[in-house]
Amino acid sequence: MSSSFGRIFRISTFGESHCRSVGVVVDGVPPRMSLSAADIQIQLDRRRPGGNKLGTERNEADQVQILSGIENGLTLGTPIGMLVNNKDQRPGDYGSMSQVPRPSHADYTYQMKYGIHASSGGGRSSARETIGRVAAGAIAEKYLLEEYGIEIVAWVSSVGNHDSDNVDMETLTRVQVDDNEIRCPDPHAAEKMTAEIVAAREAKDSIGGVVSCVCRNLPAGLGEPVFDRLEAKLAHAMLSLPATKGFEIGSGFSGARMRGSLHNDPFVKKGDRLGTITNNSGGVQGGISNGESVYFRVAFKPPATIGQAQQTVDYSGVETTLEAKGRHDPCVVPRAVPIVETMAALVLVDLALIQKTRI
Questions:
Q1: By C-alpha distance, which of 177, 130, 165 is closest to 340?
Q2: d(C-alpha 30, C-alpha 44), whole Å
Q3: What is the pTM of this model?
Q4: Is the separation of the CB atoms in 104 and 305 below 8 Å?
């Protein structure tokens, strides 16, 4: 099912960018778990559009409604339905673009696949679809924290050519990440990144970036051998997000330049378990968590819809000039931070519940 994710903790999202509402159905949430709309709203507020100079001018409250699966503040073990209404949608902004596939957008490929596509805002390929993921992931995060003490923190680690390198991911908190609009906990780098995004917006252009994420306090043993390896599930989750073009875990591509004598992570005794001195493996060995922090990076391309005039062709092949209208993020990475966190939570909770079936 193309709109579903997970095996035991399974989600199915619905809705398009400019339809009446978007949402998700979550199946497999353990019963008797304390849960309220406020638990979910925290991450939706961090993801929502509007409110600062770095994102889209579309302003949505993104208030979640819980439709099912909870009674007297406790989960019932039955499917949880959640809904968020679109209140600031403007499908009319896209009328002039309905016959012209936007360069590097999903208009053309959706048209080729289905013979029809949502003419406004990208439809299902829009980041509005991620609202359902974030709502479901907020539930997953709560369970992981309460059951295992797992903490998941993501941050913006680069925009364009500007990188942050002054981040201690073992102590980093979401409060520190949210200390500035760009969600980069390195103040010096954050200033340069902010200027880069503002310059792109003023030029009616866009810019890409990277979100890094750390998952702390995982028990050893999460992940399935061969096809459902932990890093493979994380890569699947992250590359399913709009605008993603790259994923690497642990040493990533830099590890390909190292010798094994330098890359290997020697074991040591850490309390009542074995641990490693270094963590080039990124907390995963043989596709299974080893008890160290899992850390990875996700690359996001520049948003495809820009305001500059672009030479292209319409669906019939006639040359035309496209000057896109509508409201769009000049860079997606600041708003992608909670999306990356919650998608990581969805992977980890599913693997944790699978592991419980063995106990």
A1: 130
A2: 22
A3: 0.94
A4: no
The burial class, CB within 10 Å (0-12 / 13-18 / 19+), for 20 is: exposed
For tokens 């702390």, the residue is 216
> In a 3-state reduction of DSSP, which class is residue 66?
strand
Residue 359, token pair as written in the block: 């106990």
**pLDDT of amino acid 54:** 77
User: In sequence order, what E strands does the chain have?
Assistant: 4-5, 10-14, 21-27, 64-66, 70-71, 74-75, 80-85, 151-159, 162-163, 209-216, 244-249, 267-270, 273-276, 284-285, 288-289, 294-300, 309-313, 319-323
Q: Which domains does the chain have, with CATH numbers?
A: 4-356 (3.60.150.10)
Q: Tens digit of pLDDT for each residue in 14-38?
A: 998 878 899 999 999 999 999 999 9
Q: Give the chain's residues under pLDDT 70.
A: 1, 50-53, 55-59, 88-97, 120-121, 326-327
**For 323, phi and psi rounded to 5 degrees?**
-125, 95
Beta-strand pair 273-276/319-323: unpaired
210 Cβ contact partners less than 8 Å away, ≥ 6 residues apart: 156, 157, 158, 297, 298, 299, 300, 333
Is residue 248 helix, strand or coil?
Answer: strand
In this structure, what DSSP letter does residue 242 have?
T
What DSSP assignment string belongs to 157-207?
EEETTEE-----TTT--HHHHTTSTT--S-HHHHHHHHHHHHHHHHTT---
Q: Is the CB of residue 289 less than 8 Å from the CB of residue 221?
A: yes
Structure-token pair, residue 14: 């619905």
Q: How far apart are CA 61 and CA 48, in angstroms?
A: 7
